[in-house]
Amino acid sequence: MRYFCPECGKSVNKLFDKLCSKCYLELKNPIKVNECLELLVCRSCGKIKVFGRWLEKNNESLKNFVMNNISFSNLKITDAALDFYQKDYGYDVKLVIRISNNKKEFRFEKKFKIFEKKVLCESCLKLSGQYYEGILQLRGNFNKDKLLNEVNSFFEKEKLEDSLASVVSIEQLKEGIDLKIGSARSLKRLVKNVLSKFNVEVLETYSVVGYDRQKNKMKKRVTFCVRFL
Fold first, then answer.
1. What's the pLDDT tens digit per position in 46-63?
2. How far is residue 160 from each of residues 11, 75, 127, 168, 198, measured CA to CA in Å?
3. What is the 3-state secondary structure (H, E, C) of the chain?
């Protein structure tokens, strides 16, 4: 059975609230989204800002970003699909949703754009200013190049969860090597999961470097002295 839309006169198989899907979208505006969305992208690590957090840029995080910027007016949605088409400015996005109404299913489509804005995330901004939370002191007999490769490989994996996981600087000393590490948490994981597997002695110490007024406690920096036997 065919129906005629009273607004545009088009012959369609289904009517939604007495309108064809195109007129329903234009007149009722049930899917509210800006024609152009701004997406913050860190120009250093490539992460994107979603829900106030910096996340790895992938289809899942892009989808979360888009869905967070869309509102649906009391619609019973049975399915939603997003397609991203990469452009120089960011993405063209096509949203397709299916809505159930009186045992009938309707398909609606909406197109919009995402414009990327290059910034520095908080972690990369800190690292650019030589920020570090820990020091790793390597002492004794070890293969410098091999060990540094293991350290860097470990931190590359850690960066997925901890943006500060990075070697900020390396200082060659007469007694060994000192590495300044951006994240104290990742440094502790490195010592526990990688360096402790060697025949080593580990000394952990802390020094006070300031006061955190927001958390109302002293700010401390951890130092691990790892001696290879």
1. 999 998 999 999 999 999
2. 52, 36, 16, 17, 25
3. CCEECCCCCCEECCCECCECHHHHHHHHCCEECCCEEEEEEECCCCCEEECCEEECCCHHHHHHHHHHCCEECCCCEEEEEEEEEECCCEEEEEEEEEEEECCEEEEEEEEEEEEEEEECCHHHHHHHCCCCCEEEEEEECCCHHHHHHHHHHHHHHHCCCCCCCCEEEEEECCCEEEEEECCHHHHHHHHHHCHHHCCEEEEEEEEEEEEECCCCEEEEEEEEEEEEC
Give phi and psi for 41, each to the nearest 5. Answer: -125, 130
User: CA-CA distance, 69 to 127, in Å (whole number)?
Assistant: 30
Q: Say if residue 20's pLDDT is above 90.
A: no
183 and 211 in contact (C-beta within 8 Å)?
A: no
pLDDT cut 70: percent of the chain above it: 93
* Global pTM value: 0.71
Q: What is the mean pLDDT of the chain?
A: 88
Q: Which residue has the higher pLDDT, 137 or 25?
A: 137
Q: What are phi and psi of 185, to 5 degrees?
A: -60, -45
Six-digit token string for 153 = 């490989």
Nearest CA among 228, 222, 227, 226 for reference residue 135? 222
Give which of 20, 1, 17 is closest to 9, Cα–Cα.
Answer: 20
Q: Which two tokens stand for residue 129?
A: 């200013």
